[in-house]
Structures are given as C-alpha cells and as structure tokens.
Design brief:
This protein has one helix and five strands, in the order H-E-E-E-E-E. The chain has 94 residues and is of the alpha+beta class.
Length: 94
C-alpha cells in the first residue's frame, strides 16, 4: 500500500483534548485495531508491538508545544485483516 499521511488541527478545550487522549489510551490498551476519524475519514490502525514512544516538549516565547508520537512496524508479517482506510464498524477515537 502506498504511503499516506493525514493530519487534523482543531481548536479544542483542555477537557476535549483529555477525552481524546483517554479514548486513544483505551483503544491502545485493547487488542483490537485502533480506529481514528480524521477529517471525516475513518482510518483503522493495526498497531503491533513493540512501539517506539517519543515525547517532545518545546517551550517558546509565545507558544509552547507538547507532541506525542507512536511508531511501530508494519512489516509484511503483520498485516491487518481490516482495510486501513474507509468507514469501519470499530469504535472511533475522535
């Protein structure tokens, strides 16, 4: 499958951000594929282990940033039976 990148930038409250992060954490803790909705597109991710977890904090004069990045292998030996893009029945982390 060709590489793809989806990005969504929203202005939300701290509580809304916490809800999204909590839902993502619950989805990661399960053994099911993680389903995300980004820009109206549902993306199913079959996340394998081990994960590479990166945490980056940038403190600036006018803007601070906290970035969390997860990376994992998508080698041929670990293919998902679910389509990666499209509307899925799995619960969304939105």
């Amino acid at each position: 499958m060709a590489a793809a990148k989806y990005k969504e930038t929203l202005s939300i409250t701290r509580e809304q951000a916490a809800d999204r992060i909590t839902a993502l954490g619950r989805a990661l803790a399960s053994d099911e594929p993680v389903s995300l909705t980004i820009g109206g597109q549902t993306i199913a991710l079959d996340i394998s282990e081990p994960l590479v977890f990166e945490l980056e904090v940038k403190v600036g004069d006018t803007k601070d940033e906290l970035e969390v990045e997860l990376k994992w292998s998508t080698s041929a030996g670990h293919e998902s039976s679910m389509p990666r893009f499209g509307h899925q029945s799995a619960p969304d982390v939105a």
